[in-house]
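Q: Given only this backbone (352 positions), what sequence would you predict?
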């Protein structure tokens, strides 16, 4: 099995061994068997957040294909292999609010806690009540509470300790309401014609999010080459006060009065700024790259796309060129968002 057939980037060499597990028991047994054999293991679901090496993966790839949604009022217990976007559509249709801004994100439910998926002012951590996991360290199954999941911006305990946890199911507590959670994202509020902080019908919010995302090539579409990506390739940097002041000084020196980097204060965690702003101001334009291979999306500076004949080596080379360019221009180290499989990220700007 070539992993390029299972990834949204359509990149990645062969798996030494491949199997699909469509029940929780099959997942647990497949993982245990691989651990007993001492072979490397990759748990894969929708393949929308991985950058797999051209050489492939020298071990077992277990694809999570479990299904099932159990409803109990506004609480849902969902099998890891359920596709995420149809679940959001179903919640909105049932009058359950809290995930409507996360419409259009590809991949599985079980992967959502891994990087605490987020978009348009909402994060999945806000509605997760428990994550049922297999702990590969001792083979036990637990229900982890949110405090144990270590959710942060685009990360979690699961992402920080790769390979230890296999997510089996996720429990969500939503709000029984036809109206959305308060809208926090100015671009979305504008599209809906409401103030930031207001609520709107969840169905309208979902539709507005999907329209905004399509405009950026952020909804998978076989007819749109800009969607052959892993979504945003870099996270937005979160800088401490001194580092942000240094960035402001560098940007003003380089760009003059236009050199004001976006700032979203994150309390005592510092200031979040925009990776797309840094990349554009460092001189990288939409569409930059190889029109037949790897190029920046024509719709969104943060997405690296495979135009058909790309390779992972070419993707990593372009990502490094961008990260090094941003570091040289602004002294900020960009960190990739997707998970690297069979190879590691490194750039002159630092190792993630
Ligand atoms: C067009 C596009 C738009 C995107 N937009 C967004 C966005 O707006 N916001 C956002 O946060 N992300 C976004 N993403 C990234 C991606 O869709 C999410 O991270 C998604 O949750 C990944 O799900 P997946 O099932 O495809 O995971 P995979 O790519 O299969 O796996 C990703 C990682 O999670 C691990 N993993 C997967 N399932 C499990 C499991 N059950 N147990 C343990 N580990 C597991 C894998 O080992 C791997 O390390 C986007 C991607 C694309 C292609």
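A: Predicted residues:
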């Amino acid at each position: 099995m070539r992993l390029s057939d299972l990834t949204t980037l359509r990149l990645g060499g062969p798996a030494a061994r491949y199997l699909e597990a469509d029940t929780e028991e099959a997942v647990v047994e497949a993982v245990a068997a691989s651990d007993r054999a001492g072979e490397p293991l990759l748990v894969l679901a929708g393949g929308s957040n991985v950058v797999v090496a051209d050489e492939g993966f020298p071990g077992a790839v277990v694809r999570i294909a479990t299904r099932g949604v159990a409803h109990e009022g506004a609480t849902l217990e969902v099998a890891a292999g359920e596709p995420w976007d149809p679940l959001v559509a179903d919640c909105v249709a049932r009058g359950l609010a809290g995930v409507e801004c996360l419409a259009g994100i590809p991949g599985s439910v079980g992967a959502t806690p891994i990087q605490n998926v987020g978009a348009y002012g909402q994060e999945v951590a806000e509605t997760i009540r428990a994550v049922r996991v297999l702990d590969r360290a001792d083979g036990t199954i637990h229900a982890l509470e949110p405090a144990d999941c270590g959710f942060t911006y685009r990360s979690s305990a699961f992402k920080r300790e790769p390979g230890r946890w296999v997510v089996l199911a996720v429990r969500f507590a939503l709000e029984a309401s036809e109206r959305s959670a308060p809208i926090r994202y100015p671009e979305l509020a504008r599209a809906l014609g409401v103030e930031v902080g207001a609520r709107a019908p969840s169905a309208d919010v979902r539709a507005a999010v999907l329209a905004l995302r399509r405009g950026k090539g952020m909804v998978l579409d076989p007819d749109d080459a800009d969607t052959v990506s892993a979504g945003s390739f870099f996270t937005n940097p979160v800088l401490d006060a001194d580092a942000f002041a240094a960035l402001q000084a560098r940007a003003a020196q380089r760009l003059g009065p236009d050199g004001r980097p976006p700032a979203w204060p994150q309390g005592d965690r510092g200031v979040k700024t925009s990776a797309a702003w840094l990349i554009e101001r460092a001189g990288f334009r939409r569409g930059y790259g190889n029109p037949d291979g790897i190029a920046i999306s024509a719709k969104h500076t943060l997405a690296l796309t495979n135009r058909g004949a790309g390779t992972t080596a070419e993707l990593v080379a372009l990502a490094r060129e961008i990260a090094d360019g941003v570091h040289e221009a602004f002294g900020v180290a960009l960190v990739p968002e997707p998970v690297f499989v069979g190879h590691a990220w490194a750039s002159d700007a630092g190792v993630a």
